[in-house]
Structure formats: C-alpha cells, structure tokens
Amino acid sequence: MKLENPLTEKKVKKLRAGDKVELSGYIYTARDQAHKKLNDLIKKNKKLPIDLKDAVIYYTGPAPSREGQVIGSCGPTTSYRMDEYTPALLEQGLRGMIGKGPRSEVVKKAIKKNKAVYFAAVGGAAALLSKSIMESKIVAYPELQTEAIRLLKVKNFPVVVINDIYGQDLYEIGQNKYKEELG
Hints:
Elements lengths: L1 E3 L4 H5 L6 E10 L2 H12 L12 E3 L27 H6 L4 E4 L5 H9 L3 E4 L5 H5 L2 E8 L8 E15 L6 H13 L1
C-alpha cells in the first residue's frame, strides 16, 4: 500500500498490523538524545522546534553522506530506547514512528489511545533504505551531529505496520502463529 504524509488519523485508521507500506512525503529523524531534549521542552511547556502534528519520526542516526549522495546509510535504531519519551510525543500529535524491535506495553497503549502507528523498517538494509531518501536537512539540535533532528523527504520508503490503533502487534501475532504451528 502506498501512503503519503502527513499521516492523518483517517489514513492511520486504514492500517492493520502486518500491512506493507511504501511511505512518501516528509518524515523527521530523531534518536535518544533528541527525544530527551524534546521531552524536556514538553515538561517545561515550551515550544518544540518541530511540528509533531500528524508527523512521523524515524529512529535513525544516518551515516555521513558521500559525494553525490543525499544521505549516508540510514538504518533503523532499536525502538525501545525511545519508549520512555514516546507517550509524551504522541500526546503532542506524533502520528507515526519507524524503528525496529518491539515496543513496551505503555507505548502500545499510548499508540492506541492517540491513534498512531508504529512501523518497522528492515534492519541491516541501511544502504538500501537510504535510496528512498530524496532530501535531508538538519532542522533541530545540530550539536547532536548524527543524532540531530533531520527532515527527510522520502519516496516509497518500505515499512511494515507492527502496532496499529486497534491494539494489534505483529510481533505477538507472529509468535502466536508459530506456537500454534508447533502444536
């Protein structure tokens, strides 16, 4: 399924755990340090440096680009490292996240409550994923270097829905199916 950002509630309602999606439009990058800075601003009721309404954050710290490249290798980071900060960002309007690995129960409940979605990108395919990135610019926290918040323009960026607004979790579905097959 092809999906264009911004990622509205209407679009998210159509997604189910297991759906393969090609995402196009603008997404942000942010990892641990940037998430902490954003949460510190939220706690102080200060304005965020980015607009999270219907936005998607990709958990990645891209490698430096080589000559002629928009961006270097750009693979997903393990998502649970952002779990401490995620519910507050979802409350600010964040609609989607891209990473790898399972999320905590607290985050899964926040995804459902805030009608958001968690996508997984394939780990180990960073160079391939970077080919779907058309533009990249740092928009916040340049002092964090590779962990700065970037705005990426992506085209047909391949992801899979892991957690949907209905409480489904593709990892759990897969494990249960495997257990049933073992009998």
